[in-house]
Amino acid sequence: MTTLTRFFPGDRIIRLQLLIIVAVAVLFSFTLGGSFYSIGNFQSISSQLPILGMLALGMGITMLTGGINLSVIAGANACSLAMAAILVAHPDQPQYFVLAMLAGLAVAVIIGVLNGALIAYIGVSPILATLGTMTLIAGLNILLTNGAVISGFPAAIQYLSNGSLLGIPVALLLFLLVALLLWVLLEHTTLGRSLYLMGSNEQATRFSGVNTHKVTIAVYVLSALLGWGAALLMMSKFNSAKAGYGDSYLLVTILASVLGGINPDGGFGRVIGLVLALIVLQMLESGLNLMGVSSYLTMALWGGVLILFIALQNRKS
Q1: By the 8 A CB rule, do 241 and 142 touch?
Q2: pTM of the model
């Protein structure tokens, strides 16, 4: 590992992720040739990564505190359904477009406050609190829509998935911007430092004068707002909203967070690590799809990559 340190960044987790990316790229270059590096394949990756990325950021930020947010996808669907109902009822009316965005934000804030309050003030464990809100929200989503699809959105929504800037998809640029802002928040703000301290030792953080209740609520509100961002991208990509969209992403968001170097017990993790983990997962999925591999086998291989990553991470130099 001493030799590799000279060529890769100092963070050991980042080095391992970069090595995995290089290994995957070389493997698929031999097995798939130019098809893996085609424009169409990169477009496919760039269209899928932002949605999963937003959800993974929402999951990862709660895991940094030693918590978890199992309701992130159900919450995102609730936001999308609230926005979709207003947009479809009042098409081509700019004032209702703004109202729809605000409605989505309000739903996200309510969900975040509910999760945070259950954990901070009532003392419910994060996994049980968010499991309960996930079930509640998912049930309400289906009840209020009868499981129907709401479709037909204005061009401004569709532009997020169809538009590009300097040849780069707008959705990907939006995700990278959000990831950058989250990095700034975690690394250069009081809230970010408090969040890491809570993950390391919540009781000591409370005794040091940090209002851990407020930090917890802020973290879960921020997680829900990232879900709102994912909701916008899902609405744009599918030109519709439905209660069950993205359900298969839940375990993948946890996988991406852990693979990205976030300690499930809290206290350690970086946004860049999570972004690199998402790239690894999307490269694997895309390459295996091109090879005609079953999606179930793809999921199994993702788990294998996680096990390999953990083994390499904990290997003594």
Answers
A1: no
A2: 0.89
